[in-house]
Amino acid sequence: MTKNRVLRYGGRMTALTATVLGTLAATALPATAEEQPTSAQILADCGSGEGKCTFNSPEIGEAYLGEPRQVSDLLYNCTTSPASQTMSWADTVGSSHSVGGSVTVGGGIEGIITASVTATYNYTWQSSHTETSSFTVTVRPGEVGWISRAQVMQQISGTWQTHYDDPKWGHYYWFVPDVITGPATNGTDGKHSAVMVKSRKMTDAEKKSCSTRSDRGKVFTRSS
Predict the structure, then answer these.
(1) Which of 42, 49, 158, 168 could connect to 164 by a Cys-Cys bridge, CB 3.0–4.6 Å?
(2) Which residue has the higher pLDDT, 216 or 24?
(3) Tens of pLDDT along 90-104?
(4) In this model, does residue 33 exceed pLDDT 50?
């Protein structure tokens, strides 16, 4: 939505009575007698197209490095020497709302956010990012190793505005403030995704497994 259209809508809205405008906080209470919808209900209508929605005044926050998370199988070293093995890994990072839930790839919500951010910043926003590669993991005797990855992330804050042809929950318009957290392009604001090898000592149960006939003296992988 352009600035002029926002202003025209604003002028129109000031002439409306209080019964046709509704605003939801991010922690909106459940609907009571169909007078107060949840934020999830409003966003569901945005996604389905029942509500004519826009994502107004998007503001992009500074990129940051997300928390590392395991992206490979676990490598167990039941031998008496350090062991190295090349392991493949895959990582898919999606987007989520502060009001709850994820941004579905190919859904109506994703398209609205993309259009709003592109129009405002000429910036290509991605709701999901996938990377795959391989890495050599070295594990000491009696330890477990794996590959972790931290994705560059970014937050976009804005307000959902929906318009109904007929009043719903007593209003034509509803407004929902929201913050969307999702992956950013590598190198955004000087931040870069990181791939790292992590390890830990085996648990008592894992050590016991190493002493069994099938795992004794072996290096092997298992999913977590």
Answers:
(1) 168
(2) 216
(3) 999 999 999 888 998
(4) no
In three-state form (DSSP H/G/I as H, E/B as E, the rest C), the secondary structure along the chain is: CCHHHHHHHHHHHHCCCHHHEEECCCCCCCCCCCCCCCHHHHHHHHHHCCCEEEEEEEEECCCEECCCEECCCEEEECCCCCEEEEEEEEEEECCEECCCCECCCCCHHHHHHHHHHHHHHCCCCCCCEEEEEEEEEEECCCEEEEEEEECEEEEEEEEEEEEEEEEECCEEEEEEEEEEEEECCCCHHHCCCEEEEEEEECCHHHHHHHCCCCCCCCEEEECC
**Inter-CA distances, 176 with 56, 198, 200, Å:** 10, 41, 44
Q: For residue 114, give the amino acid letter.
A: T
Look at residues 131, 140, 126 and name the one whose alpha carbon lies nearest to residue 69: 131
Structure tokens belonging to residue 105 = 């790839």
| Entry pTM | 0.79
Residue 212: burial class (beta carbons within 10 Å; 0-12, 13-18, 19+): exposed
